[in-house]
Automatic annotation (TrEMBL):
Keywords: Hydrolase, Metal-binding, Zinc. It comes from the Bacteria. SUPFAM superfamilies: Zn-dependent exopeptidases. The keyword tRNA processing does not apply. Its cofactor is Zn(2+). It holds the Pfam family AstE_AspA_cat. Residues 51-229 form the Succinylglutamate desuccinylase/Aspartoacylase catalytic domain. This is Succinylglutamate desuccinylase. It comes from Tenacibaculum polynesiense.
Length: 320
């Protein structure tokens, strides 16, 4: 996997060249606030002294997914993970505007539904365009960090493209607690990279606008396992092996059959048995108490942390 035609001999971004053994911070201007303040995307490039694969570590594609930003930030500032072989391109926060507005979107548009983008399009479209044009052309593979949205907490998991054997192998190397194949979504970052023969694995952990230490550490450990596998970091760096990942084969959302106040009874990531009560939905007057049960044995991949639910709302993402 990635044994020839490495892309890191000369990495070029925005006309700046980074040779073997060099590191550089490149700021990509994207737009200005109405006040005239320039908004730039910082891109950190760490090019090792020896040829090897080039990996993109990307956080904050959705602006409210602060867990992903913190995860990448911690790896960025930890000097013990110096790159000796290959190249690591780090984008801690892509969607600056969404981050400032505590929003998933960028000016009302989802960047992750705007690829391949356009140089003359909306801000989200231009962001997608420059990401592909300036950065992805240098990359052998990418790890895209995300969290759950809308008060849904994702248990640490890796998603890969089922049609991509290299993505599957990378997911196994990452060794998150859970892994599963996920269909490509039109105009998404992963879909556009797949069209360009670049495998992308997506790490999901925690929920939007929340920091969750376990999800952060699982993401860091998984990333380091990949970097160490390709001998990109020094062999003396200690990386937790972790338990063997559980490969989820089928998934479905368990949805509310009634409206009311939702109270969960199981932990995220738990293995549950058929018939087990996962939670209860109660009306506000204490007259009803509707149990939510597991229809078969499996794992809780994600759960809804919002207590007020309507009929049809997603409660648990269930995998078996």
């Amino acid at each position: 996997m990635f044994q020839k035609a490495y892309k890191n001999e000369i990495v070029e971004i925005r006309g700046q060249k980074i040779e073997l053994g060099e590191s550089k911070l490149i700021k990509i201007p994207v737009d200005r606030l109405p006040t005239g303040t320039l908004i730039e995307i910082p891109v950190y490039v760490f090019n090792g002294e020896e040829p090897g694969p080039t990996v993109l570590l990307q956080g904050g594609l959705h602006g409210d997914e602060v867990n992903s930003v913190e995860l990448v930030r911690r790896m960025l500032i930890d000097k013990s993970y110096k790159i000796h072989r290959g190249c690591v391109i780090v984008v801690p926060l892509l969607n600056v505007f969404g981050f400032l507005n505590l929003s998933r979107d960028m000016h009302g548009k989802d960047v992750n539904r705007s690829f391949p983008g356009s140089r003359k399009g909306s801000l989200a479209s231009r962001m997608a365009y420059y990401l592909m044009k300036e950065i992805i052309k240098n990359v052998d593979f990418a790890i895209d960090f995300h969290t759950g949205g809308a008060q849904r907490n994702n248990f640490p998991q890796i998603r890969f493209t089922p049609e991509d054997e290299r993505g599957f192998k990378l997911a196994k190397l990452f060794n998150a607690p859970l892994m599963f194949g996920s269909k490509l979504i039109a105009k998404s970052f992963r879909n556009e990279c797949y069209k360009n023969n670049i495998p992308v694995i997506v790490y999901e952990g925690g929920e939007s606008l929340r920091l969750e230490e376990n999800a952060i550490q699982e993401g860091i450990n998984g990333t380091l396992r990949i970097l160490k596998h390709f001998k990109m970091i020094h062999e003396s760096v200690v990386v937790s092996e972790g338990k063997k990942t559980i490969h989820i084969q089928s998934r479905k959302w368990i949805r509310a059959r009634v409206a009311g106040i939702f109270n969960t009874k199981v932990n995220n990531g738990a293995h549950v048995k058929k018939g087990e009560i996962l939670g209860n939905i109660m009306d506000t007057y204490g007259e009803t108490n509707f149990p939510v049960r597991a229809q078969k044995d499996g794992y809780i991949i994600a759960k809804n942390n919002f207590p007020i639910v309507n009929m049809g709302d997603a409660l648990f993402h269930f995998g078996s």
